[in-house]
Amino acid sequence: MFKNILKWSLSLAVLAIAFTACEDPETTFDPVNPNLTEDAIIGTTQSAARTLAGLERQLAELQGEYVHLAEIASDNYDNTQTFFNQFLDVLNIQSTDANINAVQFELARMRELAKTGLAVIGPGDPDYTANQEAEFNFFIGLSYMLGGELFTALPAEPLGAAQPAAAHFTLATQFFQTGAAKATDVKTQASCILGRARALYFLGDKAGAVAAADQAIGLDPAFLRYCMFDSQNGARIDNEMQNAIYDRGSFDDLQPLPRLDFLDPKYNGTNPARDLNIPLLKIEEAHLIKCEAAIADGALATAQGIMKDIIALAGTRPTATFTDAAEDRTQRNPGTRPDNSGVTVAAGPGEMMRAGLVLDRKMGNVTVPVVSGTSVTNAMVDAVGSADEALELLYLLRQEIFIAEGRRMTDMGIKLVVSQIELLSNSNIKTEDTTSDIPPFFDAIKTEIDGINYDAAAGTCTILHNSNKIIVANKASSYVCPFQ
Amino acid sequence: MKKLSLVLGLLLVSLATLLAQRTITGSVVDEQGDALIGATVLVKGTSTGTITDIDGTYSINVGQDGKVLVFSYTGYDTVEMPLGVSNTLDVTMESGITFDEIVVTGQGVGIERKRLTSTVDAITSQQLELAPITQLDQVLQSRIPGTQVRLSSGQPGTAALIRNRGPISANATTTPVIIIDGVRVDNLNSRPALNVGTGGANSSALADIPIEAIERVEFIRGGAATTLYGADAANGVLQIFTKKGNKNKKATFGYDGTVGVMQGEEHFLRFPETADLVFKPGLIQQHRFTVDGGTEKTGVTFSGSFYDDDGFNAINQQQRVSMRLGVSSEISDKLTYEASAAFTSNWFTRDYNANTSFARYGNAEGGSFGDLSTYTSGALDTLKQNLERQAELTDITESVRRFMTSQTLTWRPFEGFTARLVLGLDDRNSRQRDVQTNALLISKDAVAPGTADQGSVTTATRSFISTTTDLSLQYKFETGDFSFITGAGGQFFREQDEQYLLTATNVTEGSFLFSNSATQTVQDFLRVAAFGGFYLQENLGYKNKLFLDAAIRWDGNSAFGKDIGFVNIYRVGLSYSLTDEPFMQGTAISDIVSRFSVRANFGQATNFPTPFARDKLFVADAYNGLVAYTFGNPGNPNLGPEIVDSYEAGFDASFLDARIGVGFTYYDNTTNDAIFTPPSSPSSGQLNQEANVGTVTNKGIELQGYVDVIRSKDFDLTINASLTTNENLVVDAGGAPEFVVGGFTFLGSFVKVGQPLGYLRGGKPVFDAEGNLIDVEQNAFLGNPNPTSYGTTGLNFRWKNLTLFASADFQNGASGVAVDDVLRYFGGVNDPGRIPENSANESFFDLAGVWVEETNFFKVRNIGVSYNVPLRDSAIKRLTLGFNLRNPIVTGSSSFDPEVTGSGISAQNGFGVGGFGFGTESAPKQFLFNVKVGF
Q1: Could A14 and B407 be called an inter-chain contact, meaning their C-beta atoms sit closer than 8 Å?
Q2: I want to staple B764 with a disulfide (CB 3.0 to 4.6 A). Which of B457, B778, B849, B864 is the partner?
Q3: Which residues in chain B (628-647) have CB-CB distances under 8 A to chain A?
Q4: What is the CA radius of gyration of chain B?
């Protein structure tokens, strides 16, 4: 009897173990990977559309890597005490910097995914459209354009030799042109054309850039394309710049240059499931390109007119009103930076003190532009008396309109280098590709680029260096002002 | 008619057998006359056996073939007693080195210790009974020489990092394989891939392994000893054997109760005020009931316990219910059945830790509140109230339910041959939940007062199931001077790990249901591995003094690349007992040298790659309501296991009637085909891929010994110590660039040729005489997080029935990072003298090196006293009273606790050396009273 009970118990135990363990008996010894193989993707319907969604997502990952770095490296933001990159805040640009490596990786990943989409996935998709082909071209062009903007030199293909920025811009213009020709959707077409204008601008092709800029304005005078985030679906695709300037969940406390305080925080979404998006391409850029061309051509009045158009255009862009009472200047040492509207700010030593640039954050809601905003007024435009003054004001406009979009670093002529990991894993990379090439006029003041003198008692703040003035003073240099 | 004859014949045979059987009873005592509880009594040449009860008595049925009884007990010399006419047989056992005890782990069915060519450590239930134990890592701590058990956090649900002979892999943890009654169980000793990010504290599956009714623990340290285990056993194997009753014995009842207090460890606090702000002593209680007994053929042990503590702060609480049933039965003379089944339910609450700005302790110690020593008492009170308010609103819980069972059939059809089949499973289900209400966020200054739409709930679930099928065959025979033990067997394991991370945002206050929220998202994770292998083993003995051991194993794994197939691994070893030579016996030398044996071996053990890492994949991500494709794992059809080649040699000796014992081992391990995940070339845009490109070496010695300073009827004093050295080096990376395995951007833990695994890398500042920063060596070697030496020491003093004991651990030669002080630096309150005044405003990226400190420590883990109350003619058979101090004395060279780590441990049992002291509370001090009653 007892033996029987034992036998049955044992048999039951064995059966229970066997059934619980296996679920699907066929996969007991050879578990099936539940992830997607290449075969499950290529040749299927919707595969092109899903790859394009993947590219939008990849752009979000890419912006998560570079936008805050570029802002820290520029004079826009001071990295007072955060775990975000500290090297770049003092322009210590090193090939060993893991953040710089990550930017290269995400850039190449976007480029290679777009190329795979164009070469393999798209043609295999029974539902493939011309506009999808145009979008793949757009993303390839965008990868090259950002490569040129952010890096002095960079491989243009897997394990390729480092190509100078100009080569990347040239490639970008070609893919943008193909994309524009293929596009059937206005948004895609405008993206390609405005992207091409931007790449031609950095190539110094004044006529080509202006023509493309005009074409873009003609296509959509309010054009705006975002990089879209989705914090609900993972920290990798939330807006890292919003983490750095607004969200308070971590040690994130970037401080804006006091003259830009009124524009901060540009990304201020209070919905934890949805961060604000970063403008990727906006029509303001077409006007800024045209304005810079006009200044270069000596057409001051034309330039002034365009500036007023830009101010008006910025005025049409949305703002957000919200409480920013949790933010301090600074978070760890409140009161050590301008933190109330009574403070006046000078752009540099000896320059005029301007009021209205610093917000009161502890006294009710604040209103901040979320696409484009500027402190430049028509009166300031009218007061311009020379081409250099116009150029300086234009760079202030660029600085304000592009704040927190990762653009200012490029305008200052500062670029990143090829990473050491690329050097070690790619025999085509030369050691000199990993050496930084910082404009000497900023290299000399690299530890003070976003430095300030703040007298809290007097309510005055003087920025140590007016970077826009420095840019203009060195406009003939190859680092800045492509049309000069 | 024939049938009737057969039945009658069988009945007669059975009757004759019955008549031929007799019952032998007796007692087993030690040299002092004290009863030995749980000593094994075996009829020689059969599987019939029992163990002594709480009085040291036994009763065993002996068949007509039974001529000799064998008495064995860990720590004592085995005694063989021939049976005479008397049915009573009392035995006195003498303590000594137990070369005849049977070792099972890593040896198929089992083998005598003296035949082993590798080291094995064992802990008996008697050793475990000295101090109350509430968690598995406490079982190991200070009890296994050569193994480091580092307490990485004081938070509940966490477990210690276990390591021996250095880190062998850049791809995997150092946690050994854990086996209970032959069944492999979940040993995830880091946070799962999907988890609730509460900062730093790593939930561990070791924290809820039921530790009921442990009879014996065996630990083998990798190398040749683990060859037979193949897959994943290179870090060693820890096996727990549980009690399964006493046959032929009336039921006995035991109660083991512990009550006490725990309080936060203050030794490493930067601000003494933190203790007042955050710590709050809590009560501990544990009650365990055990029933033990059996019938003539069947033994049963049931043990159940309830554990409860209030933590050492206002948030932590833990409750655990565990139970285990163990059964053994003789189905026939040739067939025995053993089974155990255990269930645990564990529930605890946790505070935010380490790398989250919500961490109360981390914020206090990390300078978020400035210099607490400058606070007025009023300001401190306000801060304390604020933190208490945060504590009231913090709602992080984790619950675990776990069932495990082992079913063992042992068949001995004829003398010398044994077949054993083990079937079993471990089913562990856990759920972490973090409810962040708007009120909590407001209390943390994360959102503005009045906010009502920021509440969130995050829940992480993990369902793990592993099954074991293990068949071992063994045949023993002797011819002339030679003895042979031939073994063969095979195992099949399957592990499935399924995880979900669910997040809800804009949750209506007062609910933690996902259905009461505005948005919900989910992530999932599935990892399955099926693996196993076959082995052949031969142990050859010559004149019971020279032994040769050899084995081969064929190992297969679903994680291997398609082109790999089965992997062959080998072991071979030799041991020689000099004191068994005739010329050594009865001489003057033998009066001094009680035992001397040498051993040497070569063996291989493996770690398998991450399941599915071999496959080339695409990924479909969720993105703004769309499916978004991107490149997944690049794939590697040649991905195979990393194979650790291990050479070891050593000796075991005892002197002066075994009053002094010494063990020495030199080991030299090389991890070939080490699995590295080096960074891909950024220009490829492809993810990093596991590849067998590395070589890692670990070399060192293991020295252990004891001295019986006093050994007499009323007094015993034994002092023991162990020392292990380790030199860890990455000798090859296949040309791959160095890569990060933990830490931070400014100061990380890296893998690079010529450096130890996980070496600390960052900016190394150079200051001039005035303290100005004059140079920075970027990406410099800043320290080695792996100790170059560590060990244990302890003493045991007995005066009659009173026992006093203590144990301690130490480590030397490691470095760690004072991350808390980096945070204090941000707040302007960092440690005085760390940064020269003239460089106080330099970037902390450039200053990184100043935060790397030596992390030597000496920690007394236990001091205890235990008293066996003498009982005569009482219904109570046993009464033991004890008092125990856990973590009473803590010293260290660093400004932070060298053991705790808020960073540097990779998820899902990935590589982790720790070494980042970061907003993490140390293991608390505990003051425990214990009573054990048997009746």
Answers
A1: yes
A2: B849
A3: 628-633
A4: 29
Judge: B628–A111 Cβ closer than 8 Å, yes or no: no
Residue B19 pLDDT: 44
Give B20-95's CATH code, choosing from 2.60.40.1120, 3.30.50.10, 1.10.10.10, 3.30.930.10: 2.60.40.1120
Task: Write out the CATH class of domain A44-254+274-473.
Answer: mainly alpha
Domain B111-726+786-814+855-934 - what CATH class? Answer: mainly beta
Q: Contacts of residue A34 in chain B, CB cutoff 8 Å?
A: 526
In B, which residues are within 8 Å of A425 by CB distance?
678-681, 736-737
Cβ atoms of B881 and B931 closer than 8 Å: yes
Q: Could you check whether B20-95 and B111-726+786-814+855-934 share the same CATH topology?
A: no
User: Does A57 contact chain B (CB < 8 Å)?
Assistant: yes
Mean per-residue pLDDT for B432-436? 95
CB of B528 within 8 Å of a chain A CB? The answer is yes
Distance CA B25, CA B86 (A): 10
Whether the predicted pLDDT of B121 surpasses 50:
yes
What is the token pair recorded at B548? Answer: 């040769």
Q: Does B525 contact chain A (CB < 8 Å)?
A: no
Residue B259 burial by CB count (10 A; 0-12/13-18/19+): exposed, middle or buried? middle
Is B337 in Cβ contact with A6 (below 8 Å)? yes
Residue B368 banded pLDDT, cuts 50, 70, 90: confident
- Residues in chain B closer than 8 A to A10 (CB atoms): 337, 339, 407, 409
- pLDDT for residue A12: 56
| pLDDT at A404 (0 to 100) | 97
| Chain B residues 409-468 with CB within 8 Å of chain A | 409, 423-425, 427, 445-448, 451, 453-454, 456, 465, 467
Q: What residue segments make up the domains of chain A, in order of their start?
A: 44-254+274-473
Indicate yes or no: CB of A34 within 8 angstroms of CB of B526.
yes
Confidence of residue B604 (pLDDT cuts 50, 70, 90): very high
> Are B671 and B692 contacting, i.e. CB atoms less than 8 angstroms apart?
no
| Chain B residues near residue A40 by CB distance under 8 angstroms | 618
What CA–CA distance (Å, rounded) separates A292 from A202?
12
Sequence ranges of the domains in chain B: 20-95, 111-726+786-814+855-934
ipTM, 2 dp: 0.92
Please indicate whether, in this complex, the C-beta atoms of B685 and A419 are within 8 angstroms of each other.
no
Query: Quick one: CA dihedral A294, A297, A298, A302, positive or negative?
Result: negative
Asked if the model's pLDDT at residue B252 lies above 90, the reply is: no
- Name the B residues in 683-712 with CB < 8 Å from any A CB: 683-686
- The contacts of residue B546 (CB under 8 Å, 6+ apart) are B574, B575, B576, B577
CB contacts, 8 Å: A111 with chain B: 685
- String of DSSP letters for B591-617: HHEEEEEEEEEEEEEEEPPPTTTTS--
- Could you tell me whether strands B177-180 and B237-242 are parallel, antiparallel, or unpaired per DSSP bridges? parallel
At residue B587 the predicted structure's pLDDT band, cuts being 50, 70 and 90, is confident
Residues 654-683 of chain B with CB under 8 A from chain A are 678-683
CB contact, 8 Å: A210 with chain B? no
- A244: contact with B, CB 8 A cutoff: no
Q: Cα–Cα distance between A125 and A106 in angstroms, integer?
A: 25
Say how many CB pairs under 8 Å bridge A and B. Answer: 247
Confidence of residue B114 (pLDDT cuts 50, 70, 90): confident
Per-residue exposure over B464-500, b if at least 16 CB sit within 10 Å of its own CB, e if not: bbbbbbbbbbbbbeeeeeebebbbbbebbbbbbbbbb
Is A37 or B263 the better-scoring residue by pLDDT?
Answer: B263
Q: Which of the residue ranges A411-415, B37-41, B314-318 would you say has the lowest mean pLDDT?
A: B37-41
